[in-house]
Amino acid sequence: MDEILGQVLRNAVWERLDMLSELANRADAPSLLSVARSELPRLTEGWRAMLAAHEPDEKGNCPACSSRWRQQKAPCSVWQAAYEHLVAGGLAPDQNQARHAVAEPSPRPASPGRLASAR
């Protein structure tokens, strides 16, 4: 049952991200402004919650990425991805590369519930 619920949750998140990418690429200015006002606060809060779970502990390890047998030093891959997408990518974005990245999202495992038109 947990596997099914996990798949349902993952599908819902991928579909939401696909929908937001589609809106960013195709919506008219008033619609885009409306979506930005409603979604940007949600996205920033989501990033904050995820990053809080990956804050280094007193030993400098990421508690979410570490296991009993293997400690993951900070910054973990979540913090590295956050920096890459939120900071480094924002310094001097190449418009052609940014459009290409949105139009062709990074590969992810196929899932039965994903919309065929999302790709």
Summarize the structure.
The protein is mainly α. The protein is built from four helices and no strands. The two termini are 28 Å apart.
End-to-end distance: 28 Å
- Written as H for each helix and E for each strand, in order along the chain, the element string is HHHH
What share of the residues lie within helices?
55-70%
Number of helices: 4
Q: What is the C-alpha radius of gyration, as a whole number of Å?
A: 17 Å
Overall spatial form: extended
| Overall strand count | 0
The major β-sheet equals: none
Estimate the mean pLDDT confidence: 82
β-strand percent reads under 5%
Low-confidence blocks of residues: 98-106, 111-119
Helix and strand content put the structural class at mainly alpha
Overview features:
single chain; 119 residues; mainly alpha; 4 helices; 0% strand; extended; disordered C terminus
